[in-house]
Write a structure and sequence with these properties.
The structure holds 2 protein chains of 2 kinds. Chain A has 11 helices and 4 strands, in the order ααααβββααααβααα. By secondary structure, chain A is mainly alpha-helical. Classes of the chains: A mainly alpha, B alpha/beta.
């Protein structure tokens, strides 16, 4: 069943695709940043999204804290949790082969999911949508949800913030140096652990921001909600060139657009939606392992 | 020596008193307590526990319920059923609640000759060709027929767009039966759109449906996805009424969907307003007092599965799974809390179907249809 495409339909899909893409991008930025510094694929990144969603949910619903405070609190707590995860799980095995860290990351991911399951239970909770983000604008025949505009804004602002931190600040310089040569950096008298903690805090805060935006769009909060977005963010990060934050955001946008357009153009194939994303990742890894924006690092 | 005798007598006495406290009868509860349909599992668990308080023993022995979580997954469901049978030594099983998981689990129960009674698994494949698998609910060919009738006669729909989950046997089956009956009745299916359990973004599918302008949307799916689909549809201005199946009757549908699910119709097993048996009234009183939640389909159906198994144990006068199986299959006009239950030779129950609607944030009873 193929319906002829008209302009407003196409534009409408573009809006939906960009919204989804921004959400993927937001998550991918944190993913990419942690990878860039530590060469660690932090599989628990998607679960930090889930944790942040619960923090914000409890803040708003159980403790009745106004939403801006809940959101900021959730981002802070998730950042702290990110640091704690690094201290508890990754720092002790920093000197082990990389595969150990990868397996530990999977373990942390399962731990967070199951803790959520035991402590809170598996039934989805409804995430309240603050009035500010409600409603939509109609431009011509195209419906633009207010939330889509907010998502785009948040993604852009946070991308710029991260880029500035990495490119222009001293700690950012230390992060970049660390990603090139850890031994030399330590010889230069830089506190490696402090830099890594900061990286985790920033990456987790990005996951939290992504988690909150995600929940406002898809308001079902449950312990396994982070798995699929986490995987998609990983694909986005690989697509954009893992380690490169601008690339990650771009990868997210492309992935979101491809997914939405694929389903919109050929709805009969919508079951293959995830397959397309992962196929894309395989193609990228085979043909251009450094992604769109990634640069080959000297070994 | 006397002291030795004393010890011996004491030992014998303690043995006697041990034999006096009869050994419990183990019944398994195979439920999705976590995962995507966790709400069903937890509602069912409430129902089984309340039912057990009403009838705590059979043949002079206390009943013990062994719970196994299927995590709403097919593989875990198959593992959980073997744990119940091999490790917990259950003589009968209540469960699973959704069709895909019940199909995955029922093979093992069938092979081990342990009777299994599903409260709500509606797909025909659940007990097709199986002797030990029963259900106390209607089946999807019936549900599809009633839904099609509802769409054509009650909602006056001539065209429909279907959206369903391709990873769930229930959704695929019900969609097929509805489609057949709806087309037979003169309706037209404009499109069938699919997604996979766990998907959260339905905007491309729904915006496609919007361009087709169907009279109604048929969504034979589970509650979380249904709530999100309703929400995303209303947000984009797709306001066609939504018709769903028994898979949406969980409080989460309303909590997650909010205003977007208002006016949603669905075919269901039960509504609390239809209670008309003494057992039903007794159960409702106790449930209100102890659990204090809404009494929904999954709770009531699971309680009925428990009562049917207990009745079978009592009638057979035995804890032999094969005799219990025979007793279950000869259940006639059992007054359960959802009404009179008769198990047909094929393992299915003959049950009236209830049509419910979401109104003012509540499930409201509309009508009862005999399929």
């Amino acid at each position: 069943m193929t319906v002829p495409l008209d302009f407003s339909f196409a534009f409408q899909q573009l809006v939906y695709g960009l919204t989804l893409g921004c959400l993927y991008g937001l998550l991918a930025i944190g993913y990419s940043m942690v990878y860039g510094v530590l060469r660690l694929i932090n599989f628990a990144h998607g679960d930090l999204l889930m944790v942040s969603a619960y923090f914000a949910f409890f803040g708003m619903v159980i403790f009745q804290i106004p939403w801006p405070v809940s959101f900021i609190g959730s981002v802070l707590f998730t950042a702290i949790l990110g640091i704690l995860i690094d201290r508890g799980a990754y720092r002790p095995i920093r000197k082990s082969p990389r595969i150990n860290a990868l397996i530990t990351a999977i373990g942390v991911s399962f731990l967070l999911e199951n803790l959520g399951l035991v402590l809170i239970g598996g039934r989805p909770k409804s995430f309240p949508l603050p009035a500010l983000f409600e409603g939509s604008f109609v431009i011509g025949a195209v419906n633009v949800p207010a939330l889509s505009i907010w998502t785009l804004l948040v993604t852009l602002v946070l991308l710029v913030v991260c880029a500035v931190v990495v490119k222009k600040t001293r700690i950012g310089m230390a992060m970049r140096a660390l990603s090139r040569d850890m031994e030399t950096v330590m010889l230069m008298g830089i506190d490696k652990d402090r830099v890594i903690s900061f990286t985790f805090a920033l990456g987790s805060a990005m996951a939290a921001a992504g988690g909150i935006m995600w929940c406002m769009k898809y308001p079902a909060v449950e312990p396994f909600m982070g798995v699929i977005p986490g995987l998609k963010a990983f694909v986005a990060a690989v697509l954009g060139g893992i380690g490169n934050i601008t690339g990650a955001a771009l990868g997210g946008l492309i992935l979101g657009l491809i997914e939405v357009l694929f389903v919109a153009v050929e709805p009969d194939w919508s079951g293959y939606r995830d397959a397309v994303s992962f196929f894309l990742m395989i193609v990228i890894l085979l043909t251009r392992p450094t992604g769109i924006m990634g640069e080959r690092l000297p070994d | 020596m006397p002291r030795f005798l004393l010890v011996i007598t004491g030992f014998c006495l303690s043995m006697l008193s041990y034999a006096g406290a009869a050994e419990p009868i183990n019944i398994g509860a195979l439920l999705p307590m976590t995962g995507s349909v966790a709400a069903f599992g937890q509602m069912a668990w409430d129902g089984i526990n309340t039912a057990r308080q009403i009838e705590p023993e059979a043949l002079g022995r206390p009943i013990e319920i062994k719970l196994a979580d299927t995590k709403s997954e097919k593989v875990d469901s198959a593992n959980a059923v073997s744990r119940l049978i091999e490790k917990e030594k259950v003589i009968a099983i209540i469960g699973e609640l959704i069709s895909g998981n019940t199909i995955a689990a029922s093979d093992h129960a069938e092979r081990s000759k342990i009777p299994m009674v599903s409260p709500t698994a509606t797909n025909p494949l659940v007990n097709q060709g199986k002797n030990f698998v029963f259900r106390v609910c209607f089946t999807d060919p019936e549900q599809g027929r009633v839904a099609a009738k509802l769409a054509l006669d009650h909602l006056h729909a001539k065209t429909v767009a279907i959206i369903y989950d391709i990873s769930q046997d229930y959704c695929v089956g019900l969609k097929t039966f509805f489609q057949r009956e709806f087309t037979k009745g003169g309706g037209k299916v404009l499109s069938e759109t699919v997604y996979k359990m766990g998907d959260r973004d339905f905007t491309p599918q729904l915006s496609r449906i919007k361009t087709l302008k169907p009279d109604i949307i048929y969504a034979p799916i589970y509650y979380t996805e249904c709530a999100l689909i309703a929400k995303q549809a209303r947000e984009m201005g797709l306001n066609a009424p939504i018709l769903a199946g028994d898979g949406v009757q969980a409080p989460e549908l309303i909590k997650l969907g909010g205003k977007a699910v208002e006016g949603l119709y669905f075919t269901a097993h039960f509504h609390v307003d239809t209670i008309n048996t003494p057992l039903g009234k007794k159960f409702y009183e106790l449930f209100k007092k102890q659990v204090g939640k809404e009494l929904d389909s999954y709770t009531a159906q699971s309680a009925d599965a428990y009562f049917i198994i207990l009745d079978a144990i009592k009638r057979s006068g035995s804890t032999d799974p094969i005799k219990i199986r025979d007793a279950i299959s000869s259940t006639r006009d059992f007054e359960g809390l959802t009404g009179k239950i008769t198990i047909q030779p094929n393992g299915n129950a003959i049950k009236p179907m209830v049509v419910n609607k979401v109104q003012d944030g509540k499930f409201v009873y509309v009508t009862t249809i005999m399929p």
